[in-house]
Specification:
The chain is an alpha+beta fold. Helices cover about 25% and strands about 25% of the residues. The strands form eight sheets. Strands 3, 7, 8, 9, 10, 11, 12, 21 and 24 form a nine-stranded mixed sheet that branches. It has a five-stranded mixed sheet with strand order 16-14-15-17-20. A five-stranded mixed sheet has the order 28-27-29-30-31, sandwiched between helices. A hairpin with a 5-residue loop joins strand 18 and strand 19. The longest helix is centred in the first third of the chain and has 21 residues. The structure holds adenosine-5'-triphosphate and magnesium ion. The site of magnesium ion (MG) has 2 residues, from strand 21.
Length: about 600
């Protein structure tokens, strides 16, 4: 492609809308253009990158025996009602764009495809003989993200590879899951990314496993905790660890103390000269279940620990049956306005005890009249502890479970693991922290969807059994941008060769020099012919501008037919290192071939 004929527009300045380097660079270098919030046009250079990433993904998927297909993006609401996800996806999480057609039928724009694929399997797979089977697609997904940001990292329209596998049993599922873990590692390695596979939250489905593939980068929205020995890595949402030891309590007798202005653990511990490990803090949450019932949740946890909302959500989902509900729609820390809806009187916030009275709640048809009291494992064994007194400005010290306060019946593990904690597999290892961008997620679903949607097959014994399922997603557009986030310098993007839009760019320093033009044209034809994807910068611009642009768009090799032509050579500059080579014109093709092959394999 000739730059003189391309839509080629680069920006000198960083666009104001962009916060992270990869987003700025993709905009500046003319790869993407923002059309609306979380909505981007993939311009010709970006589209080439996306096609290369897709091709790597496709090759790795095909190698496992998975089959490519293309499923509809318009999805009938009824399918989502069968799985029970319509309300959660359109209202609670609100992630699905929903609409009504002219016949008043409701539809959603696909954020994911479990429902569609399960209904196909239900129709088409009758017998165990047809299993296992794995279908995947590469397609635009739609999600009404609450905070679209960072360009392609979190869009409202983005490209995903999603695959779904069907099995007769867990063992067969595990095999495909392992194959996927390998395929995902291959995809990321081939795309030139540094990544880590980590244990991930599988929601309330529980039991079965799930792993995320994290590209390591400061701008990552996820926190990854891992140990140096390589034995453990998990998303903080899921990570487990050993809490620090509890210090013995300095309080031997139970009494109420005036503790003015101590609504935080920090202030309280300074005031009482005690350790936060001797405090039971009581944190209030508000859960709304899918039947509209609001439940006030009081979590008692050791003072130096924090509640992990993902773990709490999973526990509350398990308890949904107690409230005649199936799942939790919202989990929040109730602010003043939320409290006004159900608080019978003003709560002693910052001073609540584990037994704060239920009469603070004005119960109603929508609001459960009793607190759901949970205690985290870290707080169960504390003795002579400090906690609230249910009166503002006062705490109690020297308290004990089942003496001054009944121990809540439901013990849960909802603490957040953090950097510096001892690892469970080996207490000598401490958890380290890194930021990651989730580019892939593989998931053992089990029978969640097949059971909900009545998708069954006939087993060898003649029984109707629900499919055992797995699902596997890669964010193709997010992956492409992550590559930039991991690889750039002050001059611009440094694409990994395997996913660069072009391998080489010939920058003609002076377009009124006939010899430069002749060599450039010859190389341009020859390189493209032999499969080295090459751009020709034949614009009427100064050489400096051309070199700057070539660096900005990040093409791995820049070829300059300049001064060295006298010696029958051209200059070839490696983008990543700025290393310059003088190469005989006749050897450019074979040299680049060699370099590209070495870089890709
Ligand atoms: P996240 O936690 O980042 O919101 P998710 O867990 O909801 O993502 P999945 O449903 O597992 O995402 O989707 C599979 C993959 O699709 C993710 O691993 C990610 O790479 C990509 N992805 C998800 N949401 C977006 C988005 N809004 N923009 C771009 N890529 C996305
Ligand atoms: Mg995910």
């Amino acid at each position: 492609m000739r730059l003189s004929q391309m839509l080629f527009v680069t920006l000198r300045e960083d666009p104001a809308e962009a916060e992270i380097p990869s987003h700025k660079l993709l905009l500046r270098a003319g790869y993407i253009r923002r059309i609306g919030s979380g909505i981007y046009a993939y311009l010709p250079l970006m589209w080439r990158v996306l096609k290369k990433v897709s091709q790597i993904v496709r090759e790795e998927m095909d190698a496992t025996g998975a089959q490519e297909c293309l499923l509809p993006q318009l999805q009938p609401a009824d399918l989502w009602r069968e799985s029970g996800r319509w309300d959660t996806y359109t209202q609670a999480e609100g992630i699905m764009f929903a609409m009504t057609d002219r016949q008043q039928r409701e539809l959603g724009l696909g954020p994911t495809h479990e429902e569609v694929i399960t209904t196909i399997a239900k129709d088409m797979i009758r017998s165990y003989r047809q299993l296992p089977v794995h279908l995947y697609q590469i397609q635009t997904k739609f999600r009404d993200e609450i905070r679209p940001r960072f360009g392609l990292m979190r869009g409202r329209e983005f490209i995903m590879k999603d695959g779904y596998s069907f099995h007769t049993n867990e063992e067969s599922l595990k095999k495909t899951y392992q194959d996927m873990a390998q395929a995902y590692s291959n995809m990321l390695r081939r795309s030139g990314l540094q990544f880590r596979a980590v244990d991930a939250d599988s929601g309330a489905i529980g039991g079965s496993g799930s792993q995320e593939f994290m590209v390591l980068a400061e701008a990552g929205e996820d926190e990854v905790l891992y140990t140096e020995d390589g034995q453990y890595a998990a998303n903080v949402e899921k990570a487990v660890s050993m809490p620090a030891d509890t210090e013995p309590s300095p309080f031997a007798t139970f009494e109420k103390r005036e503790t003015p202005g101590t609504e935080t653990i920090d202030k309280l511990c300074k005031f009482l000269k005690c350790s936060p490990t001797q405090v039971v803090k009581n944190v209030l949450y508000q859960a709304v279940y899918d039947n509209g019932i609001t439940v006030l949740v009081l979590v008692s946890i050791r003072g130096d620990q924090d509640v992990n909302q993902v773990k709490l959500l999973n526990e509350l989902t398990k308890l949904a049956g107690n409230y005649q509900a199936k799942t939790v729609l919202f989990l929040t820390v109730p602010d003043a306005e939320a409290q006004r809806k159900w608080a019978a009187k003003s709560l002693p916030l910052g001073y609540m005890a584990p037994d704060v009275a239920d009469d603070y709640i004005a119960g109603s048809k929508e609001v459960n009249s009793k607190f759901l009291r949970l205690v985290d494992r870290t707080a169960v064994d504390l003795t002579n502890f400090v906690t609230g007194s249910n009166q503002s400005g006062y705490h109690v010290v020297g308290a004990n479970w089942d003496k001054e306060f009944p121990l809540p019946a439901t013990v849960v593990g909802v603490r957040t693991a953090k950097k510096g904690d001892r690892a469970v597999h080996n207490p000598e290892q401490t958890l380290q922290s890194a930021r990651g961008i989730e580019v892939g997620h593989i998931f053992q679903l089990g029978t969640k969807y097949s059971q909900a949607m009545g998708a069954t097959y006939t087993s060898e014994q003649g029984e109707e059994m629900p499919f055992v399922m797995g699902c596997y997603g890669v964010g193709v557009s997010r992956l492409a941008q992550s590559a930039v986030e991991q690889s750039y310098d002050k001059d611009g993007i440094i694409w990994p060769v395997a996913i660069a839009p072009y391998h080489a760019i010939i920058s003609i320093p002076n377009i009124s020099d006939a010899q430069q033009i002749e060599v450039a044209e010859k190389l341009y034809a020859e390189l493209n012919q032999s499969g080295i994807e090459t751009l020709l910068d034949d614009r009427d611009e100064r050489a400096g501008v051309k070199f700057k642009d070539a660096d900005l768009i990040g093409i791995p090799y820049r070829i300059v037919p300049g001064r060295s032509l006298k010696a029958g050579k051209v200059e070839v500059v490696e983008r990543a290192t700025h290393k310059s080579h003088e190469i005989l014109i006749d050897e450019v093709n074979s040299t680049l071939k060699h370099w590209i092959e070495a870089a890709i394999n």
